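Kindly inspect this one:
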Amino acid sequence: MTKIIMSGCSGRMGRVITDIVKEDMSAEIVAGVDVVGDGTLGYPVYKSISEVPVEADAIIDFSSPKVLEGLLEYAEKTNTPVVLCTTGFSPEQLENIKTASTKVAILKSANMSLGINTIIKMLKTATSVFCPAGFDVEIVEQHHHNKLDAPSGTALALADAVNEAAGGEFEYVYDRSDRREKRGAKELGISAVRGGSIPGTHDVIFAGQDEVIELRHIAYSRSIFGNGAVSAAKFLAGKPAGMYDMSDVIEATLK
């Protein structure tokens, strides 16, 4: 039984994960952390993680960068692994996460979907085959009209996977409206679409001479991110200090 502390338990993803764990016989949320708690979650909720009196095997954090410092302090003090699902960390906070990973196990991912993270692994192989053959790479992401950031963090993670596999040779191009020139061979275009209730959709396009290969991922509900977070918590429980990501979770499932 994996015992979990849910940081950000009253938020949308916190509630999604709570419902997932209720149906999971191998996991249990033993405490929640949030500024509000309405008594409907089925476990005690504390305003600060420093107030949590129970032991756990892992912490899942779907909250805000504002709580990071207290979260890392608690994790180090109690030797509790942390699954960081929150995004928007500052460069200084990213350094703090890296430092904390030398003392406690931390898994950080911009997208907790097992599907997206499997595609990231596939992209490394695809890039090594198509890019030396002269294929152009474009990423198009689509989301509902309420999404604030563009491009999405997932689109950037996909672009980074391609660029890493290509040795960092690509220049990210977000807007060609002011360019009156042929597409450069080392451009990686990233486009964002916002409208209606479009579910999170990401397309990676490898466009060559007379052939096009596309990898597409569509997220129809938040449960895919919740399932990934719970899988990550189970994986991270008992792991030694270090920085982990979802590719480690995927590899573990294949063994």
